[in-house]
Amino acid sequence: MKLSFYSDTAELNNRAFLYGDSVRVSFFVHHSKIVLAEECYFFLMASMRKMRMAIPLSYTLEFFQNLFAEKVIEAGISDGVINFHVYRNSQESLLSKREISFYFEVDSPRNILEMQRAFEIDLIKEINVNTNVLSGIHVHSPENIYAEVYAADNELDDVIFLNPNKRIARTTIGNLLFLTGNTIKIPKQSEGAFVSPLMESFVTFVHQNKLAVIEEAELIAFESQKAEEIIIISDEKGIFPVMKIRNKTFEKTRFTDIVSAWSASFA
Questions:
Q1: Are residues 258 and 215 in the same domain?
Q2: Is 112 part of any domain?
Q3: Are 250 and 244 in contact (CB under 8 A)?
Q4: End of a domain among 107, 134, 166?
Q5: Residue 256 belongs to what H/E stretch?
Q6: Domain containing 201 — which CATH number?
Q7: Are residues 236 and 126 in the same domain?
Q8: Structural domain total, the chain
Q9: How many CB atoms sit inside 10 A of residue 255's CB?
Q10: 21, 30, 50, 156 - which has most CB atoms within 10 Å?
Q11: Same domain membership, residue 151 and residue 99
């Protein structure tokens, strides 16, 4: 089931359409409840501030909870991902003062807290991603579009981006987690990784329950070949085990057990 909703009448001359002047944050519906609502809300507010958007006074946590309860849950969607876009309107005023509108669509049914199908991925070396303050938020990214086409042309599910220092940053859809022994290594946000409320919830659960040691690290490309298990956590798409990178194959047993325990904690 697909569901979409505009805050105003859709205009083809809005700045999201013309210039990619928008930010995107995912909210999550799980068993007819909005989960991680506060974390996603604060990520949205932070993303809008970084893009110097005028945040309406009406944009409170309660506003979004009521909006999604009415438009999503009451529409019969019990599990899914709400991909929420905020964009600047086309008006004759300073960019930082312009009113904003929103659009969201819901991808359902999908349990965002469960492991999805296995991925085959590879490194992409033609382009890299930046490490500045905007790299961690979801904004228009020609790098992602190019890499998505590259992956499809090469029969891959996703690709690993490196940053200008030739270290691992992220994939087109989310962040990478590398499990070796009892340690889960995650590229730092300063390396070009996404800010991810979903991943932060997962690693907090792992840390609090002492299921593994979490290490934010600067990882060279070869780290992808040393890991025993790898997953991708994407706020937009979900959680995917990596089964193959080039000639190296990976297991998914331990990450599957950890993800299952984390998912059960939301019951």
A1: yes
A2: no
A3: yes
A4: 107
A5: helix 253-264
A6: 3.20.10.10
A7: yes
A8: 2
A9: 22
A10: 21
A11: no
For residue 142, say if its preceding peptide bond is cis, omega within 30 degrees of 0: no
Q: How many CA atoms lie within 13 A of 128 on its CB side?
A: 15
Give the model's pLDDT for residue 107. Answer: 87
CA distance 196 to 245: 23
Structure confidence at residue 74 (pLDDT): 96
User: What pLDDT score does 17 carry?
Assistant: 85
The tokens for 83 are: 């991909």
Expressed as residue numbers, the domain containing 85 is 3-107
Average pLDDT, consecutive stretches of 10 residues, N- to C-terminus, the chain (267 residues): 71 80 96 97 98 96 97 94 94 86 88 94 96 94 96 98 97 98 97 98 98 97 94 97 96 98 94
227: left (phi over 0), alpha (psi -120 to 50) or beta: beta
**Which CATH number does the domain housing residue 55 bear?**
3.30.470.10
Q: Is there a contact between 26 and 84 (Cβ–Cβ < 8 Å)? A: yes
Pairing of strands 119-123, 238-245: parallel
